[in-house]
């Protein structure tokens, strides 16, 4: 179990935001799975993303890995809000939270999205601890819009909007989905940038609006030829996904994701700002076995997530990660 600001994630295993957490039936199955401690939606935008046949996923042959060319969800935020309302109302005795992953092209849309998420959170007693938000500035597949999270100056106008929402309501749990970084200066840039948002709350306690980081998203600009993909992948040309380039995930990025979790965990723990030391890490990237879950914890994650394994095995993935498949 891990408490992340106002939400409780128990067990500390989650699905990652992905194409298999996209529609109502998928969210319902994830919600009712006893091995997930929270359900994270696919990334929603205000109006929905124009998905076409170039947006797809392929699995690799030689390891449990994936390459995907998806953008954001075709379903709008309003659709996710209505589905989550339905699921919460159906099961009032549950305490499992939903984390709504969001992104959009400008801070104005993000502000409107946060307003409507707050309407849902405030519409029933107790729902403030049932609905959280994760900002995804790290999708590598949006044409003409490389992930802003690779440069803090690109992401800070968005973070300002999240911080404002937090200071208006300190019960709002806000997470950040980070890309895989490869240089030590990239980690310190994020840490210094986030630390700049710490303030004293009315009781004099230092507080930072950002409650957790999910590390990592997929590794962009990766290329897999069809012959290395299961069934050739999308198979429309020599590439596993139609655009050629896509986001690599699964076992192929496990070491890089562990390195990101470890780097952020150390920098957060060493911070002289107590509010930074409270930021939790959800570890993701190549988590396909109970041993990989354990490695994420050893690297510093307080909760662990997966996407590729969910795509491969459905919600049985979580039973496998919990180490229970053999027993039941
Ligand atoms: C098919 C697919 C779709 C994804 N879509 C999203 C998304 O909408 N938003 C997001 O933040 N991450 C998305 N991701 C990234 C995952 O959340 C996760 O960070 C990454 O895949 C690493 O985990 P894994 O190795 O278990 O797949 C997606 C990954 C996959 C494989």
Structure description:
This protein has 328 residues and is α/β, with parallel strands linked by helices. It has a single domain (2-51, 72-223, 253-321), classed as Aldolase class I (TIM Barrel, Alpha-Beta Barrel). It contains ten helices and 16 strands. It has helices at residues 24-32, 77-90, 107-121, 152-168, 184-195, 254-270, 274-277, 290-299, 308-313, 316-321; strands at 2-4, 7-9, 13-15, 39-40, 57-59, 65-68, 98-102, 131-135, 174-178, 199-200, 206-207, 212-215, 219-223, 245-250, 280-284, 303-306. Helix 4 links the parallel strand 8 (131-135) and strand 9. Helix 2 runs parallel beside helix 3 (107-121), helix 5 packs across helix 6 and helix 6 runs parallel beside helix 8. The longest helix has 17 residues, at 152-168. It starts with a strand and ends in a 7-residue tail after the last helix. The model has no long low-confidence stretch (mean pLDDT 96). Residues 16-19, 42-43, 57, 66, 68, 70, 72, 101, 136, 139, 177, 217-218, 249-250, 284-287, 306-309, 311 line the site of flavin mononucleotide.
């Amino acid at each position: 179990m891990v408490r992340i600001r106002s939400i409780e994630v128990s067990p500390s295993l989650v699905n990652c935001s992905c194409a298999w957490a996209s529609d109502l039936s998928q969210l319902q199955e994830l919600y009712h799975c006893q091995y997930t401690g929270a359900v994270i939606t696919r990334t929603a935008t205000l109006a929905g993303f124009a998905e076409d046949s170039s947006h797809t996923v392929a699995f690799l042959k030689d390891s449990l890995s994936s390459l995907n060319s998806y953008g954001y969800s075709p379903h709008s935020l309003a659709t996710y809000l209505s589905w989550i309302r339905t699921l919460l109302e159906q099961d009032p005795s549950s305490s499992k939270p939903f984390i709504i992953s969001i992104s959009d092209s400008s801070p104005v849309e993000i502000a409107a999205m946060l307003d409507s998420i707050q309407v849902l959170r405030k519409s029933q007693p107790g729902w403030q601890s049932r609905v959280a938000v994760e900002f995804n500035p790290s999708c590598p597949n949006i044409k003409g819009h490389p992930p802003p999270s690779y440069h803090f100056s690109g992401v800070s106008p968005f973070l300002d909007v999240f911080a404002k929402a937090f200071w208006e309501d300190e019960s709002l749990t806000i997470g950040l989905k980070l890309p895989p970084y490869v240089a030590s200066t990239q980690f310190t840039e994020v840490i210094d940038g986030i630390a700049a948002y710490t303030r004293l709350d009315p009781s004099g306690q230092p507080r930072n609006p950002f409650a957790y980081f999910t590390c990592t998203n997929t590794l962009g600009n990766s290329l897999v030829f069809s012959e290395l993909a299961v069934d050739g992948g999308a198979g429309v040309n020599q590439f596993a996904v139609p655009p050629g380039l896509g986001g690599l995930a699964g076992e192929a990025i496990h070491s890089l994701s562990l390195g990101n979790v470890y780097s952020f965990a150390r920098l957060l723990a060493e911070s002289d700002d107590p509010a930074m030391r409270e930021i939790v890490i959800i570890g993701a990237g190549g988590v396909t076995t109970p041993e990989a879950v354990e490695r994420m914890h050893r690297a510093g994650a307080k909760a662990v997530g997966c996407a590729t394994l969910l795509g491969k095995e459905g919600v049985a993935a979580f039973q496998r990660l919990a180490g229970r498949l053999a027993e039941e």
